[in-house]
Amino acid sequence: MKKFTLWIKEKLWVTPAAYSILAVALSIIFFYIDLHWIDAMSEYIPSILLTNVDLAKTIMGSLSGALLTMTTFTFSTILVVLTMYSSQFSPRTLKNFVHDRLTWRVLGIFLGGFIYNTLSLLFMRRIFTVTM
Q: What is the pLDDT of residue 66?
């Protein structure tokens, strides 16, 4: 069992995958909260915070694109700098960066935010109520 936990701790994909699974779960939970409790809670929420679906889709689409762009530029810039640094000073610099837990968490937060925004965008729809 100890070997398995050490093997899991060494894998880069485990932390971002955990953050991504958490993002999927939160997106589904908030979708059902919004679906079932929005009518009961709408009298307590200020009207300025309640928007229409088209505006929400525009905002969430922009946020998804921004998070993906931010992730790409952040990690590609850092890796270019570290590659240049490791070629001139220490070849272990890039390996230390890749195996740093903080790097894994930052990547997990970026990916989790992107997945949350994208799934929330997919869950947005108009709810038509029929009044008689």
A: 93
Alpha carbon of residue 130 to chain centroid: 36
At 109, list the tokens. Answer: 């937060």
Averaged over successive runs of 10 residues, the pLDDT of the chain (132 residues) comes to 75 86 94 84 82 88 92 87 78 75 88 92 70 44
Between CA 70 and CA 66 the distance in angstroms is: 6
**Helix axis angle, 101-123 relative to 53-88, nearest 10°?**
160
- According to the model, what pLDDT value does residue 127 have? 63
**DSSP-derived secondary structure letter, 44:** T
Cα(128)–Cα(132) distance, integer angstroms: 13
Residue burial 1-30, b: 16+ Cβ < 10 Å; e: rest: eeeeeeeeeeeeeebbeebbeebeeebeee
Tracing tokens 């922009």 back to the chain, one arrives at 62
Token output for 28? 């589904």
Per DSSP, 43 falls in state: T
pLDDT at 130: 43
Domain segments of the chain as ranges: 51-126
Q: Whole-angstrom distance between the N-terminal and C-terminal Cα of the chain? A: 63
